[in-house]
From TrEMBL:
Keywords: ATP-binding, Glycolysis, Kinase, Nucleotide-binding, Transferase. Pfam families: Hexokinase_1, Hexokinase_2. This is Phosphotransferase. Its EC number is 2.7.1.-. Residues 211-459 form the Hexokinase C-terminal domain. One of its GO terms (molecular function) is D-glucose binding. GO terms for biological process: glucose metabolic process; glycolytic process; intracellular glucose homeostasis. GO terms for cellular component: cytosol; mitochondrion. Residues 11-204 form the Hexokinase N-terminal domain.
């Protein structure tokens, strides 16, 4: 990189801390699998392994108009989905921002806001006076203990949400109440987790899908499990011998038995609104990767290894108010920086200048920052790969059988090399799969939560 010996030493230390060796990755994957098994039997695990009440597999012939609502990240989306059969569909949607005030205020305010957004969308689409009540699939991407396809209790908030009056309650009933109060003619027919929805939407077009993943603000996975392996199932007879499991894998190894947690991760965790929770998610997903990177950079600054004393004057950049702000370094900046292939990292300098007011950064400093992004981003992808490999091994999916894996989320969609790096981990952890790209086929499940939720509402309608 061409830095001072001190800078190079520090970087080497950081690279080492963030690099997961093949042996260690195997250890993480093995632990992931044992937690899956324990979770299915309810034996003090970190993977909740929640049965989704979505049974069997899709035919691809499902048809009709359904609404989907997606709450769980940066935006609230309302989608009108027309399922046309043969894996085809059309969507129309609207998006609105969920402010921090709504995310942390009373649950009733949030539900009223959602009901208003749905109402507005129906008016725009000319559906507000529809003769029949539309069925809605509600993608509510937080840990929920489900008791029916449209009943469940919120276990805890994650990803920056913390509304009062919601934990221990049923998010479907709370939303249905708001809709009723506002005379919005909608039946909340299904409670859908986003990973489960992503699996379904991918499966509508690719029937060999057995895994769905979220790599966005948060991270989670769902997969199709055999009923006989769900030891804790108490829901009685089912019509199929398979059911989708919502793993809630963001909480994997919260007790930190295997996760290679660094001091930077600890800092992110400690200052988060859910300390000691979702450690795996905090090492993998969009909400946190930029923050982990920022913490490495701050530590370098404090050690005078970045923007350091220059001719006796401590550089003003070291005191960048912007960079000092909690969550100021966004994961999308990492994407731009990693994609910058120019020799003097022009784009990197631009991003830092524009977003963090870090002016005139020299090329060595830019290279250091890029290297930090690389190691944080690579670790995330390798950890995500360990989860996918764990599922494939648990389900004993042979190379001959293979599977499609539907993935939704900006991190997977936009972060350069994220997919390649997941495949690196898969190649290590699935040695039987000689050509792992052909047997574990990762693919973007665009519109995952929208179409998946509509499909779940459709399944629920068929069950009525
Ligand atoms: P959500 O998960 O909230 O439904 P997204 O899948 O769009 O929505 O994920 C948003 C997250 O992805 C944010 O945390 C953001 O930091 C991250 N993100 C957005 N754009 C990019 C990008 N270009 N590269 C990497 N991460 C991104």
């Amino acid at each position: 990189i061409g830095g001072t010996p001190e800078q190079e030493d520090y970087l080497e230390k950081v690279v080492k801390e963030f690099t997961i060796t093949p042996n260690y990755l195997e250890k993480i994957c093995a632990r992931f699998m044992s937690e899956m098994t324990k979770g299915l039997d309810n034996e003090g695990q970190t993977l909740a392994m929640i049965p989704s009440y979505v049974e069997g597999r899709l035919t691809g012939q499902e048809k009709g108009h359904f609404l989907a609502l997606d709450l769980g990240g940066t935006n609230l989306r309302v989608v009108l989905v027309t399922l046309e059969g043969d894996g085809k569909y059309k969507t129309k949607s609207s998006k609105s921002r969920v402010t921090d005030e709504l995310k942390t205020g009373p649950m009733r305010d949030l539900c009223d806001y959602i009901a208003d957004c749905v109402d507005e969308f129906l008016i725009e689409e000319g559906l507000s006076n529809a003769e029949t009540t539309l069925f809605l699939g509600y993608t509510f991407s937080f840990p929920v203990l489900q008791s029916r396809i449209n009943r469940g209790l919120l276990k805890s908030w994650t990803k920056g949400f913390n509304c009062s009056g919601a934990v221990g309650k049923d998010p479907v009933m709370l939303l249905q109440d708001s809709l009723l109060r506002k005379n919005v003619p909608i039946k909340v027919a299904a409670l859908v987790n986003d990973a489960v929805g992503t699996l379904l939407s991918n499966a509508y077009q690719k029937p060999e899908t057995s895994v769905g993943l979220i790599l966005g603000t948060g991270s989670n996975g769902g997969y199709i499990e055999k009923m006989e392996r769900i030891g804790k199932w108490k829901g009685g007879e089912t019509t199929s011998d398979e059911m989708i499991i919502n793993m809630e894998f963001g909480a994997f190894d919260n007790e930190r038995v295997v996760l290679p947690v660094t001091q930077y991760d600890n800092k992110v965790d400690r200052l988060s609104i859910n300390p000691h929770c979702q450690i795996y998610e905090k090492m993998i997903s969009g909400m946190y990767l930029g923050e982990v990177t920022r913490n490495v950079l701050l530590d370098m600054i404090d050690r005078e290894l970045l923007f350091g004393p220059d001719n006796g004057n401590y550089d003003l950049k070291a005191f960048s108010t912007e960079l000092s702000g909690h969550y100021a370094f966004e994961t999308s900046h990492m994407s731009t920086i990693e994609a910058d292939g120019s020799p003097d990292l022009t784009r990197t300098k631009e991003v830092l200048d524009l977003n963090l007011n870090l002016r005139d950064i020299n090329t060595v400093e830019s290279k250091i920052i890029k290297r930090v992004c690389e190691v944080v981003g690579t670790r995330a992808a390798h950890l995500a790969g360990a989860a996918i490999a764990g599922i494939v091994r648990h389900c004993e999916i042979s190379p001959e059988e293979g599977t499609d894996v539907g993935i939704d989320g900006s991190l997977y969609e936009f972060y350069p090399s994220f997919e390649d790096r997941i495949y690196e981990a898969l190649a290590i952890l699935l040695p039987d799969h000689k050509d792992v790209r052909k047997t574990v086929r990762l693919g973007l499940a665009k519109d995952g939560s929208g179409v998946g939720a509509a499909l779940t509402a459709c399944v629920a309608a068929q069950m009525e």
